[in-house]
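User: Last request for today: this protein with magnesium ion, please.
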Amino acid sequence: MRFLSFREGGAVRSGVLSEDAVTVRPFAGAVSLQRVIESVEHGNATLATDSPIPLSQVELLAPLPRPSRNVFCVGLNYRSHAAELAARGFNGAKRAEDLIPPAPVVFSKVPESVIGPTAVIEIPAASSAIDYEAELAIVIGKGGRNIAAAQAMDHVFGYTIVNDVTARDLQKRHQQWLLGKSCDTFCPMGPWIVTRDAMNGNAARVRLWVNEELRQDGNTSDLVFGIEAIIESISAALTLQPGDVIATGTPAGVGMATTPPRWLKRGDVVKVQIDGIGVLENRVV
Ligand code: MG
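Assistant: Here's the final one, the structure of the complex with magnesium ion:
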């Protein structure tokens, strides 16, 4: 199943996408997808729905337009990405192995950075080095602490797409990554959440284009830390909650990995596609 959030006549609603992706069956009232996820995880699978609406008549929002807390992100989690950064001497590295961390590198983006699948990415005045990162994101269903890898999939509600847009200059200037990762509009998300039964999150092709030029083409089978290991690691420190979003890292091909770097500029259109989920397409202004 595919769960989504949308705006219809000024109201923010959530619903289920039809099999043919032509209509949305909205949940009754203005129930948020966050509440739907909590309900489903509490065993209430029979939420009331209204008559279907054509998808073309609604404005798609991020499935969790304002997550309950920061979006968790994993850095340096593809071997291919570690290799391209090592080739540029990132953090003094000489080889990919120098950058592959012994435990997941976890940082976050503030909830207010989230935008919808077709909303615009705004270049902040403070930065002149805007980069993109195509990522599969996990959406947590059942919360928990100290979740063992073997049980981790029971806690996955589904998957969505995140573009972990980054101001590389701010990321470096402030040492901690929060500001460079959390600028307003820097977390395009969507277009919907695909439930975990409908795809294999550990074998999904992840691609990104800038103005139709293919820049990233990876597969989550290349993750250094797969979905289960990420959930085990994060939940060893804190209690994961329903609706938590965890972006799993980006494959090779980011703008900072070329000489000279190729930063996003006004007018660019960034498209992220993950097979089995769909497409994000965001213009840069
Ligand atoms: Mg990232």
